[in-house]
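2 proteins. here.
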Amino acid sequence: RLPQRKTLRERGAHAAWVRAGGAAQKQCREDEQHLQRAFRLRLTHPHRADALECLSVTEGVEHLNEGRREALRILYRARSMLGWRPFTAARPNRAHRSLARLQAHGALDELITQNVDGLHQRAGSRSVLDLHGRMDAVRCLACGAHEARAAFQARLERANPHWVEVGVIELRADSDAQLSTADFSDFVVPSCGACGGGPVKPDVVFFGGAIEPRVVALAAELVEACDALLVVGSTCSTYSAFRLVQRAVARAVPVGLLSLGPTRMHRAGTPLALETDVACGPALEHFAERLCGTP
């Protein structure tokens, strides 16, 4: 639980950030630390971006009053605005490209990803189910309208031109940036471009959130129809991924694992037809060359 401030409701969210000294700055640091702890709660490998758990704090925790919730939204949006451009500069790696080659060759039919960065599609994969959504879109919590994240980023930068020059201490793989300032009082968060009043969030599933029933059903259908399931670079710590493995095992479908270190499958005693404890990139390149030939 975040520490409660008895006067926050009366003074409103901005007052908690505007006051330069003492308790307000302490509260700001505590919120910052809480968000950092939330980001470290990622339940899969560190290159995933779907864990922007801070928004599970801002959008769904009942013990926070609306003022505190809005203050955290402002904090998150300021950080993500500065981290967005480096996030979009990421390029597909050897694993992404090799999976795309395997799919193009017919060795891989469908790809279910926990990642939210769209790099599989950029690598050329043609049939991808984004289990936890995509970071390149935002959705209004009031009317449900979608907007491209690039368009929302442009609106953020127009509303906060001086923030583009704020110093960045650390960039993370999920578009979060640790900033050199603790005062977010003048940061402006644009409302929904469609209804004009609703707050927007990245169109992804956050920690503690529920995957859309349509996506759950489609993932289950893909596993029901497969001849084999290969888990690549995931510990399957999140149940949304692990239940797909369980479904495959229940059908006596062979399950292969290509990942470094222990996983939830090991802890659960999941029978594995193939297990390779090596880095994904070189291993998938080797598989692609054996099955598809040298590019």
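next one coming up
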Amino acid sequence: LFTSRTLWTRACDPELKSPFKRESFILTMKGPDSVIQMFRVDQFFKGGLPLRHPHAPRFLRVDQSKNHDSTGIACVHRAGWAEVTGIREPIIEVDFCIRIQPPPKPDRIGFHKIRAFLAGLRDLGMKVANVTFDQFQSEDHMQLLELAHFKTAYLSVDKTDKPYVTVVNLLNEGRRKMYPYEPLRSEFFSLDHDRGKAKVDHPNVNADGSPGSKDVADAVVGAIFDCVSGPEKAGQDSAQGIEDIRVDGSEMGKAGQEKIKDFDSHLSRRTDRIAYLRGWVEGIWIDVDKRAFC
């Protein structure tokens, strides 16, 4: 599918850093852990907005695990424009991608904690344009997020090779930016591309003997494809949408820190019937049934 390590390296900006504290981590269903605990809030947000291109809408993707596989999450946005053969095309920057590993059986990945993480990002100032899922057991997640006023959609990266080919074109044209992330690089260079069937899949076993996977790759490709082809793509050339603005202020404000504390406490108080998920939705503070997120 893609073999140029030179182009891949050029697309990885060493000045960009992962906002996550680890390359991957285990997320339990029953334990007190949460995704936001692994996220460097002060590195990603400043002054109540994302540090990089603060007003650009973000496109999020959750590639939900099957059985006992890992789950991939990715977030991207439009970071500018480039001329490609006389046509103005978007430059896509990957805000983050992460591999979430399953806990030992019989425990499973806590998907309610992933939904809470998405709500927390919006609560901290991220403008979320859309959240996409693959088909596997995603309807319940989409409905719960829609009840909290998120826009969601089903987007498959398995039915055709178009999403992957789109990302390969971005790489060839120098229009994808992100930080170096080994799980994504390893998955991407191990993929099998059946051009006759127009399908992209991972091998059962990689060359080094490890199990094949593409959870992170699917998440990044799905988010990028949604960003370049989704309903929010029009009108993103305004200064508000893509200009590289740095917001004044050295640290996340006290209010933002309090939100994180409240956010984690909602995850831990599992005996409560109602959690007050403090999400700002169209100017109104809303109460959300804890079962929807926690």
